[in-house]
Amino acid sequence: MDAEQTYFSQEALAIRLGLPLRFIRQMADQNKIPYLVVGGRRRFNPAAVKAALDQMAEEQTRRKGGNSETN
Questions:
Q1: Distance between CA atoms of 17 and 20, rounded to whole angstroms?
Q2: Does residue 12 belong to any structural domain of this protein?
Q3: Is residue 11 a contact partner of residue 41, using CB atoms and an 8 Å limit?
Q4: Where do the H-state alpha helices sit in the chain?
Q5: Phi/psi of residue 47, each to 5°?
Q6: Distance (Å, rounded) from C-alpha 21 to C-alpha 49?
Q7: What's the CATH code of the domain at 33?
Q8: Which domain, by its residues, includes 30?
């Protein structure tokens, strides 16, 4: 199984992406990042979560009127 098809726990995902566990939990609770429930526990595909977070960041940047680094 390659990394694109691997599913991680919330804790492992937070470590892999370098994000706070609380943030991962909040995003999942709000259904802003994709996950599966396996055996009563959430499992996350890091590539799918990163894509969702990247899309959220892009939308947030557009709402604020562009990238602050280039303005």
A1: 9
A2: yes
A3: no
A4: 10-17, 21-29, 46-63
A5: -65, -40
A6: 13
A7: 1.10.10
A8: 3-63
